Amino acid sequence: MHFLWPRWGLDYGMEVLKVLEEPQFAGRAVLVHASSIGGYTFTQTLTHIAEGKEKHAGLAKRVIGHIYDSLVVGSLEHMAIGLGKTLVPRLESFVKNIAMLYFWLFKTHTADLYNKSIQVFQDIPITAPALFFFSENDAMCNTADMETLMDRWKRRGMTVESRKWKESKHAAHLRCHREDYLSTLEKFLNLLPISSLKAQM
Predict the structure, then answer these.
(1) 23, 24, 84, 115: which has the highest count of C-beta atoms within 10 A?
(2) Is 127 inside any structural domain?
(3) Is the pLDDT of residue 155 over 70?
(4) pTM value > 0.85
(5) Is residue 117 part of a domain?
């Protein structure tokens, strides 16, 4: 529901932000590990950080790394196709058309806010190292757009690592490629500036 009605997603993003800025968490490092739609939820939090850069600068600096597993990336039409393939494969075209109609009918409340979120994510206010897990056959992820995003972040001077598989399953890369996933994750975590986090792994 947070995705289908982005205003609710923004409200939830603000709740997450408030929790991370509460006194008991204020001095702690933050490692983001978002899977699928979780990347969207984190982007809603990023939107508030981007709009209040001075107010939330402390949190932006506390993020030591961010990991995205099966990030939903692409145009609205691509996302609508992905919804159909993922939710009801037998009714893929129907679901896609209903989703596109919904995005069109409520454009200012959906598509316009999605586009704003995409821009915030592309110009992310956090420059910590990032890791992406994705696959070429994921209906929810346009690989060309994913690679363009990673190149954009690299041009900004960010450390960006990735692991792409030819075939895998949306939000199930760990189950499909366990050893590869875990070794890539461990290698990435070793880049991060915190020893206690590594010790807990």
Answers:
(1) 84
(2) yes
(3) yes
(4) yes
(5) yes
